[in-house]
Amino acid sequence: MKAFYKTISYATYPAFWATLGVSYLSLNSGFLWQNMLLSLLLHSIIPLVFVWLMVKRGKFESLEIPQTKHRSWVVVFSLICALVFSSIVLQENTIGITTETPQSVVIENLEFEFLIMWNQLILLSLIVQWLFNRFSFKISIHVLSVIGFFTFFIAMSNIVVWDKFWEIYGIWNQPYMIIIGVIISALVAISRKQLKSHKNDELIVGAAIGISIVFINFYLYEKLGSIFYF
């Protein structure tokens, strides 16, 4: 059974959800593979290599990074990588147009705006993680990430239902998506608990942040635009 929990834990590595969101919001662009590979590189591979090097040099105890001080270092490094990714995405300026119909142009522009909003959520989540680490409180990043992912897309599809993007890609506003999100999030939380990676309060706080930060991000974007871009 432990192998099952490890598989769930590894398969739902926090940065996986960042790349999945980036890929989904780049489907109609001319930059799908570019964005996907850049996200994989800057959100996952380079930070993982950083952690591996720190473990090899004896700076970190293990890949699990049990100490919050060391987690702060990783979060700062990951934040720099995420800012580089966001800057590259912004430089794209416009979505590559794949068809000539007015509707396709609308979809591509909306998709690009949602991608910027998604990138802002990633950056905000890293800042929140850093703050909690500074107060020496270890939250579950696995739970935060998976719940943040499902909350973002389910909320967007129900809040922005009048936009053509969500009309066409309306899978997220179906009731079963909430059930799927709850099941996957519960599996992640149970796995982290069974592997003794987190206590109950760390899982609960991670879940609460995963939900609340999505709506904080919506509010900031509505009031200020993208605070990381303009």
Explained architecture:
This protein has nine helices and no strands. The chain has one domain. The chain is globular and about 50 Å long. It is an all-alpha fold.
Uncertain residue ranges: 93-102
Percent of residues in beta strands: under 5%
The figure for the number of domains is 1
| Number of distinct beta strands | 0
The total of helices stands at 9
Round the mean pLDDT to the nearest integer and report it.
85
The major β-sheet equals: none
Write the layout of secondary structure elements.
Blueprint lengths: L1 H10 L2 H11 L7 H25 L11 H24 L10 H33 L6 H19 L4 H5 L6 H20 L5 H25 L6
Helix pairs in contact: 1-8, 2-3, 2-6, 3-4, 4-5, 5-9, 6-8, 6-9
State the main characteristics:
230 residues; single chain; 9 helices; mainly alpha
Give me a quick take on this structure.
The model is unreliable at 93-102 (pLDDT under 50). The protein is mainly α.
